[in-house]
């Protein structure tokens, strides 16, 4: 009843145009019978026109409650008119409820392409408004989905918020490894003193889980004959207490073989992670039922429990180490005492957890305690943990324990960790150097690799001295690779002998790579010389690795060296039997930008000789590539000649116009018009600027009528946007035949060659807020943007990159916009198009902008949308006037 | 973290063309400067910009509002101007007149937009 009457009333009021009453009616109706009103509006919205629909939604937004969100989403989804849909999306951003965000996201895949940008802006607004709730809800929804939880934690770390701390304090207590791991990772950075107590609780929980897990592991590994004995043991360790009646009931169930419920209740006492529980359940069920679970289930159960215990230990480590970091941030000097007191002496992980705590709490006391562990402890696992922890501390002297393990033959893990610490601290280069000459091959290799990783300069000559042919291959290989890390002009000479046989190929490859990479341009030259002298005898198997090195590097940077050896590469191509290697040689040439006439000529002749060897066969892909390469090189020469001729022609034509006066000038202009073709200025921006300037000067009011008439014809032929603008201005002041000439000239549309899409924009303004805002708006619309606030730096920056458009402020303290533009043009760094932004309304100044030749003017203050539109107009064929 | 920094951080997150406005001294034909809106409070706004202004200076203010095709025109007076590091000036202004709106309505609108 209400449905129909509300609909009818709304339609009547709309027909009467009484918007005020519509608003009042909806408000009253929502207040009295909200649900029915919403349902009535839900059926009304699709039946009415877009304008009324938008009006109703605007009225509803004044209510703005979250139960309206589905109504809005449905309206946006069903809206056929793009303009109304856009307005509806913009309206949607006013919702102040976090449910708005997932609701809007549900439209993401079905939104029309024309609405994308509005949609994204609204989404961005909601994301920023509700980001905290959104990330917390993502975290919470990631139960059992570690990637989702990690994403949410990453986002929290990226933009921290105080609300995250109490939230994470709770989440880590939930029994999920993902929540705990990611929660602890985030709390390490974000947590405060309020996190310490929950972290202690978590540690207690995990210690208890660990103890029970160990016992469960013991039960699984032990031999339990009979389900009853297993049941008793399981119950005992679970720590659950049942009444006598319950126990009797359970035993009866067990006898009847009904074990599922029973097992679940017992397992509850172990607080296992969900996936561990799932994995061990079948095994335990079989044991309780006196069935043989089989070897597979047994192995799976044992493995699941081992992994579980490993994960718990890692989480306990993260827990204590994060507590250390937080306590340090909160300047809680008593942290170490508290953790020592908290951990019972008998806890099997006591020392390991103390070390974890010390690793997070960076103080002199922590450092001293860790050094004590390293110096006195014999247990490899704790030593390893202490060394890991020490890596977080700076050191001024080497702990004895670290020194001791540096040349320890028998324990590779501790040895590498000890050497790493020395490298990281920048201490004990002499110890590493000593280990380089150790009698143990493994120690020597580790020392060489450490010296290389930390670029220990004093070890360079020790490693270089090692390069003797009788050195074991593993040491020689490590040494050859290590030398690559040092910047020295001696490396190339030292390693090059090892490129040749009879060394093993692994050694030769390492030597080649080091010789190629370590010596800069000279190193590359020397390597190529080796191949040249070899003449295909000994180094044939290294041609492919050489080409791979070349292709992996910067070809243009080293192009001159490669071209010096182009005959070598052509000879290698001819000799090479592997098509892949030949392909790489061709690829190197294809990736070069060769401009020197000498190289072009000689390379073409080399390529022609190669092509001659293919004669008589149908064209292969290789021959096709050779032919295309030769053609490309020939075209460079041809283009260059044609370009030079065209530039000279344009220059002569413009010189003539400029130096003549009176009738000869008219003739020179006519000749310019007769000879002008757009290819005279394509690729010649300086010539184009000059052409426009010359013709523009001839159109000037001060010129004789004959000259202006001729210039109008020429401008009409050139069809450049700037000349078109000038002609449009002239049309306002001209009469008679001159006006007809202008109209004729304007009949021809702007030449499309002058309308290039704009991709990159440079913004020059002395105000940081303008450059920041304009760059943000432009970048959001997909333009590549750069900006500068200082004019001198701006001119420099223009020279660094090719920009399609300059957005330029007029009033700047050091140099005004016009002076800046003129200087940029003088230096030949000005982008082809310029938009000036200014607050001035002074007619003389505005005329000055036109005279200097710009492509548009934007008056401050402006709407950002209008600014973007102006830039888009410059890219479109229907060019708008200034 | 002081209040100003806290507000600035909130505004960093909000990436809309609406978080800026144009201002210039009233009555002249000086250059319009772009200012970032840092905070909104009853009757006034806190701006950030890179030029100083005198206390008591009358300003012309222009800003965008959603679904308005034209910039909203307003007048305001500078209540205080404080220099921070890197030539950043914090400008507290109070609105004195707004075209087509009453000041309380405009402030409610702006607060709803920015907070």
Automatic annotation (TrEMBL), chain A:
Modified residues (4-aspartylphosphate): 809
Pfam families assigned: Response_reg (PF00072)
Keywords tagged on the record: Phosphoprotein, Two-component regulatory system
SUPFAM superfamilies: ARM repeat (SSF48371), CheY-like (SSF52172)
Ranges of residues in domain Response regulatory: 760-875
PROSITE patterns: RESPONSE_REGULATORY
Protein's GO biological process: phosphorelay signal transduction system
Source species, domain of life: Bacteria
Name used for this protein in its record: Response regulator
Species this protein is from: Sulfidibacter corallicola
Lineage of producing organism: Bacteria, Pseudomonadati, Acidobacteriota, Holophagae, Acanthopleuribacterales
From TrEMBL, chain B:
Gene3D superfamilies per the UniProt record, alphabetical: predicted glycosyltransferase like domains
Any Pfam family matching the protein: PilZ
Residue ranges constituting the PilZ domain according to the UniProt record: 7-103
Domain of life per record: Bacteria
Database matches in SUPFAM superfamilies: PilZ domain-like
Matching InterPro entries: PilZ_domain (IPR009875)
Molecular-function GO terms, alphabetical: cyclic-di-GMP binding
Name of the protein in its database record: PilZ domain-containing protein
Organism, as annotated: Sulfidibacter corallicola
Upper taxonomic lineage: Bacteria, Pseudomonadati, Acidobacteriota, Holophagae, Acanthopleuribacterales
